[in-house]
Amino acid sequence: MSEPLETLYLEGNQIGDAGAIGLREGLRHCTNLKQLDLKGNQIGDTGAKGLGEGLSHCTNLETLDLEGNQIDDAGAIGLGEGLSHCTNLEKLLQQQNYQHFVLKALHSTI
Questions:
Q1: Domain spans of the chain?
Q2: Could you read off the pLDDT of 41-55 as tens digits, one per residue?
């Protein structure tokens, strides 16, 4: 029997919105995921919303790295809605996104 996935590093793979949306389905089955690194993947608002939907099932997630993407307010809100189910989340790294109100949008949903 295989071990459950706890860590997924996809840094710098340029998956964009389409790849992030594709991850949504797989993440729904990764309930033991603790670390997800999606740094530098050109993920925008559409992809962030999709990630939020998938991550809502990752209740054991502790660290999410989204630095260097293009997530703005709308994406942050969609992501935050999903992350509100991640009760073990300790670290959310999101520098170098479009940050005018991203932190405020995330904070209001988590």
A1: 7-109
A2: 999 999 999 999 999
Architecture per CATH, 7-109: Alpha-Beta Horseshoe (3.80)
The model's pTM: 0.86
CA neighbor of 55 nearest in space, from 72, 30, 37: 30
Q: Got the DSSP string for the chain? A: -PPPP-EEE-TT---HHHHHHHHHHHHTT-TT--EEE-TTS---HHHHHHHHHHHTT-TT--EEE-TTS---HHHHHHHHHHHTT-TT--EEE-TTS--SSHHHHHHHH-
